[in-house]
Automatic annotation (TrEMBL):
<feature type="region of interest" description="Disordered">
    <location>
        <begin position="32"/>
        <end position="60"/>
    </location>
</feature>
<feature type="compositionally biased region" description="Polar residues">
    <location>
        <begin position="32"/>
        <end position="46"/>
    </location>
</feature>
<protein>
    <recommendedName>
        <fullName>Nuclease</fullName>
    </recommendedName>
</protein>
């Protein structure tokens, strides 16, 4: 009888140890499969101009409202690209009013929107030239040296959303029309709330990849800086085609 009780006690102890181990393995598996609190389960890569309206979201599951009109030929000549030197801060070079601006829609489902040219004609930094590409936009880390901090852009974002008649959404990028990696600058005339494609999880959008490819083309001397700046300011959707790329 003593032997049987000892044997049962040993088996019970082994069973308890086994259950503890299984519980630990299960908990560890769940920890690695679940996203950390407050993070997106499907993170996206960051582009040169990623600057979302995060923290100003609409209700969960609600798409942003976009005041937009179909894109078409512009009446008269498009406003000229401005020249503004404003590293590290947003220059208020245009005074816009709420509801004054309308994004232009090419394909909403694909996220192909253009800014209002009267409100966002684009602006370049005169400190970036064809002769100093190697020490500016073609130098790794350049954009971080000129980007305006969130403390400066947060106020500009809120104003821009109102000016463009848009609701707040974490998928909307506060975008440099002429990107910093193409010599664009931090100015109201070069910044706008760019709506994203349907179902987007973050601010990464189709324009980001085009900006990067244009930067590589300029740095490889396949196109001139001025030509790339003009093309993306005029119509970023057709910029590569317009440049013969």
């Amino acid at each position: 009888m003593t032997f049987s009780r000892s044997r049962l006690a040993l088996l019970a102890a082994l069973l308890i140890v086994g259950l503890v181990i299984l519980g630990f393995l299960y908990a560890n598996t769940q920890k690695h499969q679940s996203p950390a609190p407050g993070t997106n389960a499907s993170p996206t890569s960051q582009g040169d101009d990623e600057d979302s309206t995060d923290g100003q979201d609409t209700a969960a599951g609600t798409a942003p409202t976009v005041a937009a009109i179909p894109a078409g030929p512009l009446p008269g000549a498009a406003p000229a690209v401005k020249t503004v030197h404003s590293p590290g801060t947003v220059a208020v070079d245009l005074n816009l009013t709420a509801g004054q601006c309308k994004a232009r829609t090419i394909d909403a489902a694909a996220g192909l929107y253009l800014p209002d040219p009267a409100c966002t004609p684009g602006a370049v930094d005169p400190a970036v030239t064809q002769d100093n590409l190697g020490s500016t936009i073609c130098k790794p880390g350049y954009t971080m040296t000129v980007r305006a901090p969130a403390s400066d852009t947060d106020k500009a974002k809120a104003l821009s959303l109102a000016q463009y008649g848009q609701t707040r959404a974490s998928t909307t990028e506060y975008d440099h029309l002429i990107s910093l990696q193409l010599g664009g600058t931090n100015a109201v005339s070069n910044l706008w709330p760019e709506p994203n494609r349907a179902g987007a999880n973050g601010t990464t959008n189709p324009k980001d990849a085009i900006e990067t490819r244009l930067n590589k083309a300029v740095c490889a001397h396949k196109v001139t800086l001025a030509a790339a700046q003009k093309a993306i300011a005029t119509n970023w959707v057709t910029a590569e085609k317009d440049l013969g790329m």
